[in-house]
Amino acid sequence: MTADTPILLVVHHTPSPPTRELLESVLAGANDPDIEGVTIRSVPALGATIPDVLSAKGFLFGTTANFGYMSGALKHFFDTVYYPCLDAVAGLPYGLWVHGNNDTAGAVTAVQKIVTGLALTQAAATVEVTSGVDATARDRCYELGATLAVTVAG
């Protein structure tokens, strides 16, 4: 890829085996060999920076659902980049996956409020997983990753 190849930034908090497995499926889809013209950058939420966001042309966010909310790590990421990146990211596509033991609604709502404030455009349906990770969940995450990669590759 060249220096001007668009970047799909994958920002995630994946502390558990199930969330890690979902991340791996998202990345496999985003890196599908049939998709060209996009660079995939995967960065843990606590390590993602303002320059990472400003260099991206699309985003995939992944989080656990903790006590009815997104992970603290993803919230910290959004707190860090929100105002410095506000105008620069408007209109860019995003996708989201959330894993929770029994409920993901609060985490999804919280992320949706923030990305609405950033004026990001949802490019694929949110993947919510509230049970163990099975083939269906892996397939949905693969499709999510592929959809965002194709969208960013344009």
Properties at a glance:
single chain; 154 residues; alpha/beta; Rossmann fold; seven-stranded mixed sheet; 43% helix
CATH fold assignment: Rossmann fold
Helix tally equals: 5
How many individual β-strands? 7
Order of helices and strands: EHEHEEHEHEEH
What kind of oligomer do you see?
single chain
Morphology: globular
CATH superfamily: Flavodoxin domain
| End-to-end gap | 15 Å
Major pleated sheet: 7 strands, mixed
Count of the domains: 1
Low-confidence stretches: none
Strand content: 15-25%
Radius of gyration: 14 Å
Q: Provide the structure class.
A: alpha/beta
Mean pLDDT: 96
Which architecture name does CATH use? 3-Layer(aba) Sandwich
Write a concise synopsis of the structure shown.
By secondary structure, this protein is an alpha/beta fold.
Structure description:
The protein is built from five helices and seven strands. Helix 1 crosses helix 5. The protein has one domain: Rossmann fold, CATH 3.40.50. Strands 1, 2, 3, 4, 5, 6 and 7 form a seven-stranded mixed sheet that branches. It is globular. The mean pLDDT is 96. The longest helix is centred in the C-terminal third of the chain and has 19 residues. The chain has 154 residues and is α/β, with parallel strands linked by helices. Strand 1, helix 1 and strand 2 form a beta-alpha-beta unit.
List the helices and strands and how they pair.
Blueprint: E1 7-12, H1 17-30, E2 39-44, H2 50-55, E3 58-66, E4 69-70, H3 72-85, E5 93-99, H4 105-117, E6 121-122, E7 127-129, H5 135-153
Helix pairs in contact: 1-5
